[in-house]
Amino acid sequence: MQQDIFFSNLKEQYTLELPFVVYRKPNASEVTAFLQKDSTINYVSDFQEKGFVFAPFNTAEKPILFKEEDCERITIDSFKKLENLFLVDTSAIISEAAHQFHVALVTNAVSTLKEETDFKKVVLSRKESVAIEAFSPLEVFQNILATYPTAFCYCWYHPSIGLWLGATPETLLKVYRNKLSTMALAGTQRYIEHTEATWGEKEIREQQIVTDTIVEALSDKVQKLEVSKAHTHRAGNLLHLKTDISGTVAMGDDGIKEVITALHPTPAVCGLPRERAKNFIVANEGYDRSFYSGYLGELNNVQTTERNRNRRNVENSVYKSTATGSHLFVNLRCMEYTDGLLHFYVGGGIVEGSDGEAEWQETVHKSNTMKKILPVK
Ligand SMILES: C=C(O[C@@H]1C=C(C(=O)O)C=C[C@H]1O)C(=O)O
């Protein structure tokens, strides 16, 4: 499909107030959209469904599903950057009250982590809301595509739920056939050109907690577990520490559900132990995370890959292989739009040595991932 037709289909869908999602996977060129034919709200129940899932942070709330059979699926092979895309940094609007609240929140967490020796890490976040006069989500989505080729870029809309956009660096889970992969992502610093990143003991410890917890959670479900060394991963203007984790998985009757339940929410967005961290978050953050730090992506989709047989004398040397799989991402570096307001959601991991002011700054830098792609009229 041609790019202009693709986006005009999406625009019509949005004007008609019908649900849709449009996304591009990390380092991929294809952009895919699911256009739901009516405005029903469907939920995932057993994770055997096929379609696109959008799940909140709170596991007590059901993930929303755009069912494959209820959607028209359209794609473009690649996105060509348009001339009139302009990028502006709107980082100026920050409230001093929000600053003070976040520093106090982190300070409270650090003393709780010191008091309770079993409580190792908690991820604390905030929501920053900014008034915006005119907002065209599809135009902003194109800015996201043009700016973040290595992220999972998306725009998700349901008239009864809301409108979300993001460019996340974090995979929750990828499973095709019996191959599973995931990552442990944590630790943050700003990217500075021509400078090699070095990581402090606190960041290394913070990220190791995520790796160890994921490995432990998968140990009885995944065979041939391979765990890479932690390495620096660039996400826009930020750097993180990342460990790649992979293995083979024998899907039981519960399919992917068991693995998702074991992983979500990981200590990259919640903490360790999970229930203690969750309780601390709910009691102290002072707002509802909603879909921020939940997950989203393709659920049980058929993926076709072209392979070259690479043999002589085989006339039709390219053949296609198909596999059913799921590819889910953690909903970070995202924003929500509600009548005239844009809400940016940002957080960071807190361990015993964390500093309130530094953590505040980290959230400010993270919020720029979304702020810098907003067009001004
Ligand atoms: C919680 C966020 O990011 C997560 C927390 C990180 C950290 O604590 O350093 C780094 C990457 C993400 O796993 C966010 O972007 O809001």
UniProtKB/TrEMBL annotation:
Domain Chorismate-utilising enzyme C-terminal: 105-366
Cited InterPro entries: ADC_synthase, Chorismate_C
Pfam families in the cross-refs: Chorismate_bind
UniProt-recorded name of the protein: Chorismate-utilising enzyme C-terminal domain-containing protein
